[in-house]
């Protein structure tokens, strides 16, 4: 199966799953907390969506390994071969309490390199997808690279929790950027940057949070690295920075200074 066929297949999965998830938004949800953290939620929809997607991947690519959010106890220790990433509901707090600004995300990497990523904005029924050899798309419209702006002209998206808690760098980014916003979903945040609606995003993320957006960004003139300007570790959590090239240079310099 070539890249276009994989994209069409997974896009169809996400269209079906998105419709199903929208139908559950006002139904009774079973909501639990993870690791005793009342802000880290998981619902029955997260678990069911992941189970459904795992079955789909297994039918398409029986030898593939998967890194996923819920119950991720057997994470691969190398990036060899095909690895799929799944985030069944990204922005679960938004899903439970706001019913907007949450995503279903997937990505396919091969030997550590991005092949394709998918970010479905569930409530807006908008799919951002693509990869370095395939191009970046919103639904069936091909995307061009966003305008390259520097940090002083950038709208930056940030982790609100880390900003309020005073984690290093967040206040400095907020002060130097033209403006900052907090969305509560890495997928929605990556999508805003990819679509040119923001110029950068900075947060501490797990692989399933950043793999889809990183794959799509590789088709555009966007930089995605850790705070040292180095490639992301696709097996572990990272402090992730996606931005236009100029804003990214400004930010890396700021973090080093």
TrEMBL record:
InterPro entries: Inositol_monoP_metal-BS (IPR020583), Inositol_monophosphatase-like (IPR000760). Keywords: Hydrolase, Magnesium, Metal-binding. GO terms for molecular function: inositol monophosphate phosphatase activity. Its EC number is 3.1.3.25. The keyword Cell membrane does not apply. Pfam families: Inositol_P. CDD domains: IMPase_like. Coiled coil: none annotated. It is an enzyme of class 3 (hydrolase). It comes from the Bacteria. This is Inositol monophosphatase family (SuhB).
